[in-house]
Design goal:
272 residues; mainly beta; ten-stranded mixed beta sheet; eight-stranded antiparallel beta sheet; globular
Length: 272
């Protein structure tokens, strides 16, 4: 979700592959559930597992580095709540602080941080031009420096003007959206906003594998050339959010007639 000024130029060249329909050896290996939120409660997201990123981001309201339009709120049920066994992250068209939209970005930082494992989320996505939902991971301590030096793992991203695309991406100092060299791929799925799908990665010292509904569609290998290409030997945490507009999500504007829009999450599970 950070700095994608050249992302579209790169993504339009992607050919979507069905890839592998078999489970990987790593998927079979990860059996120990070490952290989860099944959302079997009602109210605000569990504060023992989730915190909030608040506001517009950056020192001077730069839309989290992507020129996004929303204000991320905290402890506000209109934007983040649990009901009927699902986490709801909901974007609204409303004036709030210095923004014309509200949404939420919840993070597991310092409450769920891991190096390696299988990370999976079952989710149904929002729909409409201007939406930009994501389930992703960032480094907890940024030990190799600011973005993109310490890395980013996007388990799932979607943009509303591309409604049948679900993408998995890795950003590092060597491979990132600012350079147009990010390592990304996706699957074409026609019911992202009407059905739940399981988005997952398997992260080992040697690779990061991306899955949707058990199908592997992207692989990022450790080239053993150093931290610029592989900063993924440190602890990362989870982020879930719905952005509005931005450099990628707002490429074709925002359709104000679609609001409110929500991402529903059935569960988050981490195995090691």
């Amino acid at each position: 979700m950070i700095h994608r000024n050249q992302l579209i130029c790169f993504l339009v060249t992607i050919v979507f592959f069905c890839c592998y329909s078999v489970q990987s050896a790593a998927q079979k290996k990860y059996k120990k559930l070490v952290w989860a939120d099944e959302f079997n409660y009602t109210g605000l997201p569990d504060s023992s597992k989730w915190s909030y990123d608040l506001g517009r981001g950056c020192p001077q309201n730069c839309g989290w580095g992507n020129n996004e339009l929303q204000y991320y709120t905290q402890r506000r049920k209109e934007n983040a709540r649990v009901e009927n066994g699902k986490l709801i992250i909901e974007a609204h068209k409303e004036n709030y602080q210095d923004a014309a939209y509200t949404s939420a970005r919840i993070v597991s930082k310092n409450k769920g941080d891991w190096t390696y494992g299988r990370f999976e989320a079952k989710a149904k996505l929002p729909a409409g031009t201007g939406m930009w939902p994501a389930i992703w991971m960032l480094p907890t301590k940024w030990e190799y420096g600011g973005w993109p030096h310490s890395g980013e793992i996007d388990i799932m991203e979607n943009v509303g003007y591309w409604p049948d695309s679900a993408l998995g991406t890795v950003h590092t100092n060597a491979y990132n959206g600012m350079k147009g060299t990010q390592r990304t791929n996706g699957l074409r799925i026609t019911d992202l906003s009407t059905a739940f799908h399981v988005y997952a990665i398997e992260w080992t010292p040697e690779s990061i594998l991306f899955f949707i509904d058990g199908k592997m569609y992207n692989e990022f290998k450790n080239e053993h050339t150093g931290k610029d290409a592989w900063p993924f030997d440190k602890a990362f945490h989870l982020l879930l959010n719905v952005a509005v507009g931005g450099n990628w999500g707002g490429k074709f504007g925002v359709d104000d007639k679609i609001f409110p829009q929500k991402m529903e999450v059935d569960y988050i599970r981490v195995y090691q």
